[in-house]
Write a structure and sequence with these properties.
By secondary structure, the chain is an alpha+beta fold. The protein is 13% helix and 22% strand. The chain contains six helices and 19 strands. Strand 5 and strand 6 form a beta hairpin. The N terminus is likely disordered. This is DUF1996 domain-containing protein.
Length: 366
Amino acid sequence: MLWTAFLAFAAIAEARPWYEKMYKRQGGMTMLRFGCSQVVIDRLDPLVNPGSIPSPHQHQIVGGNGFNASMTTDDVSKTASCTTCAFSKDFSNYWTANLYFKARNGTYKRVKQLGAANQFSDNFSTQIGGGILVYYVSAAPGKVTAFKPGFRMLVGDPTRRTADPKMAKSNCYRCYTGPNFGGDTGAPCQDSKVDTPGLPKDACKGGIRSNILFPTCWDGVNLDSPNHQSHIAWPKNGPANFLSLGGDCPSTHPVRIPQLMYEVVWDTTPFNDKSLWPADGSQPFYFSYGDNTGFGQHADYVFGWQGNELQIGMDATNCMGAKCKTMANQNIAAAKACAVKEVVKEDKDAWLTELPGMAMQMEQAI
C-alpha cells in the first residue's frame, strides 16, 4: 500500500509541468503565462499590410478591442476599452495565421484551437476555447526593460518552406501523443526528440502544439522598423535556450526586453482519419498563407499594456502564471465578452474550395 502510494506520488511529481521545474531551479525569475481568447478572426494585418481590407491571408487575433486594419495610434492601450487576456490592463494585440485541413477531395476546413493544458494551467487559460497562450519571461540577470507605447514587431518568415537550423530553438511544433495533452513535457523547442521545426508528418492523437519565440534584444531607439524585425535581435548566442534568454545582447541592440512566446494548441483530432488525407499520405495541414511545411510560421505583436503594468511584472520576482503582485486580473466571462466586429465577411467554419485570400496571394507572388 505504501509502495503504491509512493509510486503515485512519484508519477505526479514527474508530470509537473516543465515551467514549474524550471521555475524552481531559477528562483527569482518572473514568468507571466496567461491565456487570451480570440477577439476576432479576420483577414487583416496592420503590420505587414496596413490599411489593406482585406489582407492576403487570414489571422486569429487576441487581446484588446483596439485592433483594426491600420492601428496607427502610438498607444493602443488608449484606444481599447477591453481585452480578452487574463491581465485586464493588457490591451496588446497578438496574432498568428490560422491553420486549415486539406481533405483528399481538395477542400479546406479551418482547424479550431484548444485552451491550455488543464493540468498545467490556471482556470482562466483552460476556458479560453481557442486563442493564444502568451508568455513574458524575465529570467536573465540584470534589468529587463518592458516594451514602450508604440512598440511592435514580427518574428518568422511566411515565405520560408525549408528548415532554418538557426531558428530550431525558437519555432517548433509538438505532436501530442494522446488525449489530454499527452506528451506535454519539457520546455518548448528544446527537445529534438519531441519538437520538430516543421509540422508533424503523422496524425497526432491529441492535436498539435505550436510555439514561436521572439528575440530578446532591442536597439533602444526604434519602436518599429520597415520589416518589423530590424529593431530587434537575438542575443549573441542566438535563440539557444528558452528561459536562459541566450546570453548577452549585441552592441547594436543592447537593451534586454522580455522573452515573449506564443503557444497555440491546434485541435487536429477531428481530422485524424487517414482516409481523409491525401492519397499519398502526405501532411494535410496548411497555414492560411498556403504553407503545409510549417517552416513559415510567423507571429505579430503590438504592445498595449496600460501604464507601467508590464514593467511591474518584469521587475517582480517569484511570479509565475496568470497572477503577479499588484497586477490586475479579470474573469473569463469579461474576457469573452470583449470582441471586435469582423470587417472582412467570410465563412469561418465552412468547407472551402480554396484558402481565404488565395487568389490575392497568387497575384502578389506573380
